[in-house]
What we know:
Largest sheet: 5 strands, parallel
Subcellular location: Cytoplasm
Distance between the termini: 62 Å
CATH superfamily of the largest domain: P-loop containing nucleotide triphosphate hydrolases
CATH class of the largest domain: Alpha Beta
Low-confidence stretches: 86-94, 98-122
Oligomer: single chain
Keywords: ATP-binding, Cytoplasm, DNA replication, DNA-binding, Lipid-binding, Nucleotide-binding
CATH architecture of the largest domain: 3-Layer(aba) Sandwich
Shape: globular
Number of domains: 4
CATH topology of the largest domain: Rossmann fold
Domain Chromosomal replication initiator DnaA C-terminal: 376-445
Domain AAA+ ATPase: 164-294
Bound molecules: adenosine-5'-triphosphate
Radius of gyration: 26 Å
Mean pLDDT: 84
Structural class: alpha/beta
Region (Domain IV, binds dsDNA): 348-469
Strand order of the largest sheet: 6-7-8-5-9
Amino acid sequence: xxxxxxxxxxxxxxxxxxxxxxxxxxxxxxxxxxxxxxxxxxxxxxxxxxxxxxxxxxxxxxxxxxxxxxxxxxxxxxxxxxxxxxxxxxxxxxxxxxxxxxxxxxxxxxxxxxxxxxxxxxxxxxxxxxxxxxxxxxxxxxxxxxxxxxxxxxxxxxxxxxxxxxxxxxxxxxxxxxxxxxxxxxxxxxxxxxxxxxxxxxxxxxxxxxxxxxxxxxxxxxxxxxxxxxxxxxxxxxxxxxxxxxxxxxxxxxxxxxxxxxxxxxxxxxxxxxxxxxxxxxxxxxxxxxxxxxxxxxxxxxxxxxxxxxxxxxxxxxxxxxxxxxxxxxxxxxxxxxxxxxxxxxxxxxxxxxxxxxxxxxxxxxxxxxxxxxxxxxxxxxxxxxxxxxxxxxxxxxxxxxxxxxxxxxxxxxxxxxxxxxxxxxxxxxxxxxxxxxxxxxxxxxxxxxxxxxxxxxxxxxxxxxxxx
Length: 469
Ligand SMILES: Nc1ncnc2c1ncn2[C@@H]1O[C@H](COP(=O)(O)OP(=O)(O)OP(=O)(O)O)[C@@H](O)[C@H]1O
């Protein structure tokens, strides 16, 4: 690779500036490994060792890099990245710096980003920033048994928005790929139907925009803006719990879009039946289309995700290390990614190869904080039965006695709330019932919790005992 002399000189100046503005460890870890590649047409290209390195720089140091470039080279200088795996080999994935932060929805509120709520007309398609994260796409979403169904319905919706499942409601615990999948749907729709107005927004940001619109007397603009979206994607809808006015506004937007054949895509950390503090009329609507669950990744998926991430980061990690991580880190994909990133940082900082020792050290540190044993459905059955002084075996019989039915329903409700076991599996483990019986039980208990104070306190007592040995 021929380095361009001008790039070396310019980058050296930037480095001097950066060195004055970060601590020594950060400088050694994140800036020393960078190699200047070329300077052409007001763009400086730098080589970084992996895509992760690029993402990290863009996330943590984007402002510092921009300031250094503008100050040392000139206002408006662009930064380009190239992934360099070693001195002789460089994968030419050129990535434009500073775009990533713009692509991330939370980094820039949609309200300002689209300037749309001040317009009474529909935003022109090309003016509407969909706020999709292009790094979350179908191509890099790895399929496994825990996400296969959700992936299939997501692809179906992307192929034919508003024609099949509307709304599409995806739910599952944190870090299992919900945000990734809904961004992938949005991106695919934009590819297939560029004329469609697609918008991704977190429920939190939607609420902030709504409150802002009231404060600044722009409520009508706010409503008009949302009613003109073709594909509305709202992440983490559980955040609407308890905020009645936002829910009310969303209810009207939902109705308008649905009636006009527009697609709605929603995610939540739990099934609609478990969403407390959300009005029934909204919950009913969430069930109009299709509800799909994303479960925690099983071991095969964990291994495949690790392999894919490692390949993408240009790392060389032995199989024994991959197996060790996959066996010991099982909470979420986010957690897996965190471990690989830590491995990378440690190996750069300590200049050590990635081996089993290093992996064990990192995994133990990460897992130690969450050493509380996760609850199982059996733990819950035992606690509930002991609270009601009922023999555990009775819960598994076919009896329809009122008190047994109620204990069974409470156990199902608590299992759904406190574990990530799927409804079907909970049914199997509690009296060999089906998935629909579990959801019905959850609804019955939830309704009673909302109106019956004594019952609510009783459940709180059982819940408090769940983590006691
Ligand atoms: N099947 C998968 N293939 C590849 N990457 C995945 C997969 N599932 C999750 N990920 C990655 O794991 C990380 C966490 O996923 P994501 O943010 O989509 O989770 P989430 O379910 O939306 O979590 P939360 O509810 O906390 O927002 C992301 O970097 C995502 O790309």
